[in-house]
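The record is kept unedited without comment:

——
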Amino acid sequence: MKTIEGTKLLLIDDEPHILQFLELGLTNEGFIVKTALDGLTGINIAHEFQPHIAVIDVMMPGMDGFEVCRLMKKSGAQTSIIMLTAKDDVEDRVKGLNIGADDYVAKPFSFEELLARIYARLRNQFPNLFNEVIYGPFKLNDRKKEFSYLNQTLHLSPTEYELLKYLVMNHGIVLSKATILDRVWGYDFQGDENIVEVYIRSLRDKLHDKNYQVIRTIRGAGYRVDL
């Protein structure tokens, strides 16, 4: 997959040879890369740089990777965080995910694996960086605001587009009406939450989803798209 110009990565690791190796490889892939040898420097760079992805080593002296992750997420940054660890430890992975990490890679790792995980995070969190993103039978072009399903273009209103995009990008997750209203209509929306049902019904018609197999209703909980 071709990297979109302007994609920014921040690497934080106290091992200079790892930083140099990753910086060279990722720069050659077309990313804009900045590096830091310690957590505090990394936090300061992140504040100014606003990276799309931060790759953070867990085991660093002083401020460890968990604290760096926690502070970055607390700041409200939209950065997607991939943690690096020398330990393939379930407790470490759970701890990292619980404080906001988006993915985990255990050392030693291949450059190709890390690159694949970076692209996965970009597709999930920043689909607008790519001309086209594929989610199962769905194809999304956020620049053109176009959606297709099973290779058929869907003719959607702006709100239908944003609703379907939110459902598809969060496939496998049950989304309540309140959550959908907040993310699609905005937290200051004053209308009836049943507007969600109206738009879901319209999307099902356009997807020919008569049996509710694409957009599932989870009784008492909300809606879920399964790919």
